[in-house]
Protein 1
Amino acid sequence: MNILSLSGSIPEQVCDTIRFFGHGGSQRISHYCQYAADYISRVLEDEGVDGVVFPRSCDSSRTIGSYLEGCGKFVHQFHVPARRDAAAARYLAGEIRRYKEAVEGHYGTGITDMEERTGLVNGRNRALGRLYARLPELCYGAYLDMLHGLLQRPLRGQRVPEDLPACACPEGPRVFVLGSTQAGTGLIRQIEEAGLHIVGDRLPESRRLFSVPEVSTKGDLYENIAESLLAGLPSPSQDAFAEILKEDRDELVKKQVQGVIYITQKYCEPYDYLFPAYERMLDGLSIPVLRVTETGGGAGNAALAIGTFADML
Ligand code: SF4
């Protein structure tokens, strides 16, 4: 099975999926986030993909299923609650079970290795957390490249390296990046080439991925996975902005961040809505922010803006 997944909220303990990071596909849906449009293109055009799983979270992801109707592949929408209490955990546990049964039904296979997979996810996340903690001394671009490659491989083949190349600009201004999942690492390379030193992030494929607590295999595994997913870093599509601001304020202060680069997709409402609140929080900390919007064809004249921001810092 080759299932393409869109988001970190899809539980990896159920089965392998290939995490989607970008594809310059033919779908150009106006007033639709390009990341989701590229995802739809990849599903429709890539014969190697035989299934898809995506969350019901933002407006774009909510309607992906309608564009994929009749594509002949396994199509599953995973519902994630917009609360973090015990009722939400029970609901999410039911969704995880429904996802597992849908995979089993479509592919005619029994899934019996969820406990083993849980141990593998726990171990991988621990290793990623250790690398992230060393980011000030490591090359962030190499770190994100490694992550993107890792998440497109089956869980059993995911090896987190012990080390990565050293940061080439350790004396540069310390910046933090946040936004929706990156299509690739081109923009990150531009930031580093401008002499900025990326010391932390809030990206779904990085800090948010391994922010979830370890999942216990004792008791009800579905509920344990659900509780862990709900205890990870909050998301602007599901959670209150105040929770996001609190978590990030602590990280920014701890890492002595001097500037923030806020990367968003055109028509990505969750991150557009979050921006004014985030900007206010940064104002209070006297940290300047540069907002960069990806449009599908790259980040336009981002290099110029990033260079100017670097000079200012
Ligand atoms: S969160 Fe933003 S980038 Fe991600 S699918 Fe939704 S609209 Fe697109």
Protein 2
Amino acid sequence: MNCVINLSRFYVCELDQLGDGEIVQITPPARPPIAVFRVDDQLYATDDTCTHGQALLSEGDVDDDFVVECPWHGGTFDIRTGEALSFPCVLPLKVYPVQLEDGKVYVDVLAGAVKAG
Ligand code: FES
């Protein structure tokens, strides 16, 4: 019998532990921290570290338009694509696939990719 273990899928939390408009940080082993967002009952995940400095976006604010604001200098990103939207942020974030299964939230921590140009 073959046994396949998916080592890239990281458990985040129960869905009901992440309220709408909230951000939670996960710290997968040997990987950079990832911010997981719930906005308008959709789930998204991006790099947690701002591309302008070392601020954590999970300590910032996300709005109903899927925009997270960095807590240090106010740069913004679209959490759906990772696109940098406003100065001083110009480089995009990686975004990660998020899965919801049996009320549990998971992130594929090895599948992060830059989607925005
Ligand atoms: S560290 Fe995020 S905008 Fe400067």
